Amino acid sequence: MRVELIGHLKSVVDKDALEVRVEGRVALIEVLRMLPEGLRDVLLKDGKLRPGFLLLLNGSDVRALSKGMETPVSDEDTLTVIPIIHGG
């Protein structure tokens, strides 16, 4: 599975994309838990996605999918992780 990183996330792993090997179909949250430790620590807290990130699965907002973070994914899918930056 291709994981594309946007913005400051690229600097966490010194890459703009990663390949994560997915055997069969697994829940999207499980793929996030497979990411390298530094990136995983930025994205997850207590095993759940931290606020402040938009996830696109094959171009669709994960929040709009009926199963959300439990959506089954496979090796052919693409996940794009976008930090949401708020001003104030």
TrEMBL record:
<keyword id="KW-0833">Ubl conjugation pathway</keyword>
<dbReference type="InterPro" id="IPR015221">
    <property type="entry name" value="Urm1"/>
</dbReference>
<dbReference type="GO" id="GO:0034227">
    <property type="term" value="P:tRNA thio-modification"/>
</dbReference>
<dbReference type="Pfam" id="PF09138">
    <property type="entry name" value="Urm1"/>
</dbReference>
<dbReference type="InterPro" id="IPR012675">
    <property type="entry name" value="Beta-grasp_dom_sf"/>
</dbReference>
<dbReference type="GO" id="GO:0005737">
    <property type="term" value="C:cytoplasm"/>
</dbReference>
<keyword id="KW-0819">tRNA processing</keyword>
<dbReference type="InterPro" id="IPR016155">
    <property type="entry name" value="Mopterin_synth/thiamin_S_b"/>
</dbReference>
<keyword id="KW-0963">Cytoplasm</keyword>
<keyword id="KW-1017">Isopeptide bond</keyword>
<protein>
    <recommendedName>
        <fullName>MoaD/ThiS family protein</fullName>
    </recommendedName>
</protein>
<dbReference type="InterPro" id="IPR052045">
    <property type="entry name" value="Sulfur_Carrier/Prot_Modifier"/>
</dbReference>
